[in-house]
Structure formats: C-alpha cells, structure tokens
Amino acid sequence: MKILKRFLRKVLEYTLEVIEHSLRHLPLSLLRVFQGVSLVDKACLYKFAIDFKGVDKVNKKFYICTKGAYEYDFFNMCFLNNMLGIILLSLYKGYIPVINVRYAELNIWDMFLKQPFSNYLDQSSYSIIENENIQSFFSPSFKSIYNKNDLKLWCKIYNNFVELNDETKNYVERECQDVFRDGRRVMGVLCRGTDYVTLKPLGHPIQPTLEQVFSLLKVKMKELRMDYIYLATEEKKIEERFEQEFPGKILINKRSYYDNYYANKCTYIREVNFERENDSYYKGLEYFSSIVILSRCQALIGGNTGGSCAAMFMNNMKYEYAHLFDLGCYR
Q: Distance between CA atoms of 127 and 110, rounded to whole angstroms?
C-alpha cells in the first residue's frame, strides 16, 4: 500500500507540474479570465513577474504587509520567499508593497534589507490599503533550481527586490574582503546539520553525507582550479571534518556555532541561545551574510536547502559550476 501511495503521489505531482508549466504559455489576458483557480493564479504571477519592469503610474496605493503565511520570530529564507511572493501579488493587484512584519517590535525585513520601493514612501498623496490580507502561494520550490526558466525567474525576482540595507551591506563587504582577498578562487559549500538532519522535515530535500560532498569536492576543486573552500555550516564538528579532509583550505566567516543544539536536547535550531545582547539579530546576520558570501563564490556545492537555493538566486546564474544534490525528499 505504501508503494502504491508513493507512486500515485508522484503521478499527481508530475501531472500538476505539467499543467502549471503548460498554463504559462497562455496569454495573461486569457489567464485572468480564470483567476481564482490556484494553478491559474500561479501562472498569472509567473507571467507578470517575467514581464515586470517596475512600478508605473497605476500604482497609487500602498499595501502594508503585516503578516505572512506563518508566525515568524526570526529572519530565514522561508520568510524571505514568502515576502517576495506577497510583494509580487501586491504589485499584480496594482499596489506598492511595504513589508512591516514584526517580531518583538522589530520589522524583520528591515533588519537586513531595504524596502523594495523605499523611494515611493514619501508620496503623501498615495492612499493606504487597509483591511486586506494579501497572502501569496507563489514562491520558489526546491525544484526551481533544476529548471532553467524557474531559476532565471527567481534570479530576476531576487535581483529586483532583495537589496541589503547599509548596515548589512557594510558587514557583508568586510567579510567578503577577507574571504576573497588576493584574487582567491573560492568554492562555496553549504552543509546543514542540527534540526534539518535530525528532524528530516517532510517534503524537504534529503541532505548529502559529508562523504558524498567530499568525493565531489576533490574532483571539482582540481578540475576548476579552486584555491579555497568557503564553508557555510552551523556545526563546529562539520568544520573540523572539512579541516581534516582539506587542511589549510577552509575559509569561514565570523559566526557562532550551534553544537549546543545536541547538548541541550533542542528540537529546533532557533531554540539555541548564545547569551548575548541582540542575539536574534546577530544569528540572522551571521546566517544571511554566509548565504550572500556563498552567492559570490566562483562555484557552489551543497545540499538543496532554502539557503543554498537563495545563494543560487542571488548569484544570478554566474557560477562557473553549481551542484546541489538531488537525492529525493524526506518521507
């Protein structure tokens, strides 16, 4: 019975995927006639995003987004992708989006990013949309990086709407100067541990073993003539394994490791606290900066995660080589 269920699930997923991609070839004017059907709505936003060239004169209203699909208490890629979907849907409806999702009185978006349309915020003649809760189903999937058209689309969306604020930009640039100094050729590597590996979240990509990563790295480091490996991971013991395998080749940026996740018997990584002022901010900054650094490496190898996908989108298809392991999903 389990085998039959898996087979039927795969058939259904494939069928829906084929329908969704087929709808994208229809003109937007025709698709709008059938709005309200989930797959049609996705196709509408896809075509709108592909053709988007900026805010025009019809956008005279602000939409203040105060909630997302989930209750967010920290910055992560799920939050970022959810907000990008809301931004697109707001624009599609003719509104100028302003992200104001808060946790502990802090605007989570503003912690690290600029508002995508900050140059319009002083338009006092514009009205504000109230009592409308725009929620978007449009976000990248873990398969998006394997589809050239989807990858191109999300690279464009990230390029249009994801801009570091001044404080984050200065921090990241200092880190990058250290990682990429003297013209180093750097291979970016992302290896997840902690809750991703212990919980094996349903529907999320299976992560590669360190041995699988090492095996591919040894081939590609030589083939691509890379000097160093920039390692993005949350576990010190993973860094130590890399140092043993590639002595003198491992680069890291400033970050606190989460190995206490195991000692404290935590369920989720967010439960780890480093007993410092503004801990949530610094955890987010260290995490997000590592993703930006990955996006600036010459090549990328790693597990398929929200972070590695974001690095692909930020890189804008400039990697000389990129491989995110496709090992199926946790069931």
A: 22
